[in-house]
Write a structure and sequence with these properties.
204 residues; 73% helix
């Protein structure tokens, strides 16, 4: 299952809205709740993100379903906060994380990937004055979007292998191979970019 979702053609108001407007929706749904850091605003933002992504009419499962790896992460984060006696932070952290996923799906389910990257690069061009390289940011985002599904697939493969050995409850046995593969993938990607002269200042 893809974490952020893949583009689904449609005619809803979200499909017709420009990429810039969708980026604004993402910021409105996520930033205030993150800044406030309280359960009620976080839950309100989560509810709003659910309603907005459902309005894309791509099917409730495609819009709202979360991969197992994310459920595991949410359980770990919530459990830690409960152990340190901060159940309020458990609600805030988990609600904000799921809100960010759903808000991202507002973008990815209703807009082709290249359009999103182009809009991000265009929006960052004024920041060249403070040293931001829009093209490099766009490249980084494109790599991230491609890497997340790969990492989730890796986690699922490792989980199935651990289950076959009767070690699915061993968190170390699950996480270590994923980290090793993630580092290997990052090194391979970096080497491929360097070989093509990409990702470095002045690179084409």
């Amino acid at each position: 299952m893809n974490l952020f979702g893949l583009y689904v053609p449609g005619t809803t108001w979200l499909h017709r809205l420009g990429a810039g407007g969708k980026y604004l929706i993402l910021l409105v749904l996520t930033v205030p709740a993150l800044a406030i850091g309280q359960p009620v605003p976080s839950l309100a933002a989560l509810l709003a993100s659910v309603l907005v992504v459902l309005s894309a009419r791509v099917g409730w499962r495609r819009a709202l379903a979360l991969p197992l790896a994310l459920w595991v992460l949410l359980a770990v984060l919530a459990g830690y906060q409960v152990v340190v006696r901060r159940p309020d932070l458990a609600v805030v952290v988990c609600a904000n994380l799921v809100t960010a996923v759903y808000a991202s799906r507002v973008l990815t389910l209703t807009t082709p990937g290249p359009v999103l990257i182009d809009a991000l690069v265009a929006g960052l061009r004024p920041f060249r004055l403070v040293g931001v390289d829009p093209e490099r940011v766009g490249l980084a985002v494109a790599i991230m979007v491609r890497s997340v599904p790969l990492l989730l697939d890796t986690f699922e493969q490792v989980r199935q292998a651990a289950r076959a050995r009767g070690r699915e409850r061993n968190l170390f046995a699950l996480i270590t191979p994923v980290v090793v593969r993630a580092v290997g993938q990052a090194q391979a990607t970096g080497a491929a970019l360097a070989a093509r002269g990409l990702g470095e200042p002045g690179g084409s």
